[in-house]
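On clarity, I found the account of how folds are encoded harder to follow than it need be. Since the whole study asks how a given chain folds, the encoding of that fold should be made plain. For the editor and my fellow referees, an illustration may be useful. An entry of this sort, consisting of the sequence and the corresponding backbone structure tokens, reads as follows:

:::
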Amino acid sequence: MIKTPQDAVCRWLEEQLNWSEVQFLGPLSGGNSNLTWHFSSAEQACVVRTTPNEAISPNSARGIERESKVLKLVEGAVKAPKLIAWCDDLQVMGRPFLVQEWIDGRSVTATLPNSDWDLVGAANALGEDMMRQLADVHSIVWPHEALSTLGRPDNFLNRQLERWLAVRKEHAVRELPLLFELGTWLQDNMPVTERPALIHGDYHLDNTLVSVETPEIKAIIDWELATVGDPAMDVALALLFWGEKRVSETPAFSHLQAISRVSGVVDRRHLAAVWSEETGRSIDTMGYYITLAAWRLAAIVEGAYGLYAQGKVDTPYAAGLEHDVPALLAEAEQAAAGNW
């Protein structure tokens, strides 16, 4: 008798992929918006990605479906899990899911996966590899037949700005004049997108899997926000969580990439130069993009703070946004002044 969604997946894997002895091993960390489950079988291990119960809506599966398309698109060009199967039959467990290969790696935030590594040396190696892997993502450029189903690059930056300015005006929770001042600055100083390409949409070190043997990236994960857009946005978000340069004594989301914030690590400009050398793309306007990355993230997560302020959620993450959102805006202001 099937008792749980995981039981249903086990049976589906056995029936559809002809695997035997399929077992659910447990949930995996990483990926804030979707569920990540680990399964084993006599043939191979795998990872299943699906939407959480509370997120079910007519649009809730779009991110998972998008991720399945992207994993198929990047196979052979980018270090990413191989897509094994896609299931959109709601009779299986009530929501769609994808099946991808299991990669033995670790998501890195506050600690390295190997305590024997030199902290600074390992952090530097991972930072540089993070940029090289991102360059591979951005090698898939527009126009490209497979990219046409992911988005459209025209007017990409302005659409981002208009969307989040409108959201924050309509759903204001507290006075954040700097958010609107910076929004106007971003609109007035918008650069021309250089060769639109596939972008990850949420690229930073903890959305990769790192080898436990050597400080190198084995795979990029969590592709549900991937689209066609301005590649510099991916670089800027990764750089936002890198290095010692900070306005606030306690930076926003201080738990992210704590290994990169120790004395002696390479700085943001060095990593941007690695990406530039790999792609042939300019970093002359990277200050703008870091401003945009910090501003956009602040505009997005302010919504979660609004739920906290209204008493609808009560989590340490949401409570911490009281500090984190203004800290992100301060980062954005600093980058807009050219100090990144």
The chain has two domains: 5-101, 119-336. The longest strand covers residues 35-40. The longest helix spans residues 286-309.
